[in-house]
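It is worth pausing here to work through a concrete case rather than discussing structure prediction in the abstract. The textbook approach is simple: state the sequence, then state the predicted structure, then interpret. We follow exactly that order.
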Amino acid sequence: MRWLAALALMTLPAGADPLGLVDYDAVIAAHLDGGPETSRITLEGGVVLTLDAEGALIDARDPGDALGCLANGLAELSAAARICPGALSPGGADAVDTAIARLIPAYAAGVRPDPADVATVAERFEALVRTRMGDVLICGLTEHALFLRQFLRTPEGQLWLDNALVTPRLPVSDPCF
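Step two, the predicted structure:
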């Protein structure tokens, strides 16, 4: 099943937002000032879009903290917590739930060309969790999810989360810590 999820992601532009809320064509059109020869667009918050010669998105990267990466990791942890006994301790589950509650409005604020409704982001996030629950390998957490599970319970992890969510920016998945 993981290969199926990976295959589905390969049809999206590299670094695309995992909740499918960003209208990349509109974002590119609004920021493309140099014509088709423009190969990079830097957005507020520092996200960089890389375009091909025709102006189509080929990559989206956040040099800070990619909110899409965080969403993917939290969705995996939430899915595992629901169907895998012992995947999260009670404290770990609380940390994940708190991070999700903080992520949703920050993610909504960063969607472009217009911010998304928080309820819509929450619905899309829940759909991503349900998709992850269908992965037969979900209980064998990825390195990313294992790291996130521990990191969110530390003071450093909470500081990182505070910093990651403070500046509204396009939610992209790359790079993923």
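Step three, interpretation. The mean pLDDT is 86. The first strand starts at residue 40 and ends at 42.
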